[in-house]
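Q: Given only this backbone (116 positions), what sequence would you predict?
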């Protein structure tokens, strides 16, 4: 599923850019941003596995929420100097595209155009 692939690529990228953060952040910022990024693909996968459209839509909404949470963490990391501005901008662009893709999936499901 293309949206899942984009989401897992983002989670991998977030893992990589947070690998060199200060060890004091392991249980704080580092953990939080990694969990929110990974939650995007996890909720997309869960949505895909659901039978009922309303369940699917709900998990896509949750994925979208995790996506915006990840964007907030990226902004914070950039502002305090933990993360590179250029790379966070690239990630933010990918997250915005994924947000739009999730909206399309949600609208398609709500319109009854997609079976599964």
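A: Predicted residues:
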């Amino acid at each position: 599923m293309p949206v899942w692939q984009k989401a897992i690529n983002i989670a991998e990228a977030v893992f990589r850019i947070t690998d060199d953060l200060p060890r004091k952040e392991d249980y704080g910022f580092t953990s939080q941003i990694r969990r929110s990024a990974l939650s995007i693909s996890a909720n997309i996968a869960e949505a895909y596995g659901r039978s009922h459209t309303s369940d699917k839509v709900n998990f896509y909404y949750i994925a979208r929420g995790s996506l915006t949470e990840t964007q907030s963490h990226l902004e914070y990391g950039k502002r305090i100097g933990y993360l590179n501005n250029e790379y966070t901008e690239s990630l933010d662009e990918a997250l915005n595209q994924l947000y739009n893709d999730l909206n399309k999936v949600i609208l398609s499901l709500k319109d009854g155009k997609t079976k599964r």
